[in-house]
Amino acid sequence: MLRIGCWILTTWAALNLVASLKVVIDTLFLGGHTPALFLLLTEANIQALSPDVLATMDSIAVFANGLNIAFCLVALLVIWRALFNRHRWSFGGLLLGFLVAWGAGTAADGVVGFAAPWVNVVSLGMLGVGFFFAGVGLFKKGPLHKDA
What DSSP string describes the chain? Predict the structure, then answer.
């Protein structure tokens, strides 16, 4: 059970890591803009924005996604170095970190009118299932308990 939970949490972290890397690379190196713009505005509306506004939005996107990259890397390290090796402290730390990250993403989506609500639902579902399996594998004791 613990291994299943670790893999589900790893999948969540890896998907978020890849998405954030794409935003940072597109914005810094490929001349793109934050994807949030395209959820709300047409291409013509985006081109009508002043360069200062676009630069500010891109800067915030790079900063926020850079922080998410750092969080995901630390989370992956804690999952496989601590949680998988049954260090109970890691469960609470990861739970807090993942819920704060999910909450920040959901709040950001709320600011733009929940342009992609399914992402929040799927994300929370993955976290719930991952922490359920990890928790059962980590904390359950008894003769029927077998780690998957």
Answer: -HHHHHHHHHHHHHHHHHHHHHHHHHHHHS----HHHHHHS-HHHHHHS-HHHHHHHHHHHHHHHHHHHHHHHHHHHHIIIIITTT-THHHHHHHHHHHHHHHHHHHHHHHTT-S-HHHHHHHHHHHHHHHHHHHHHHH--STT----
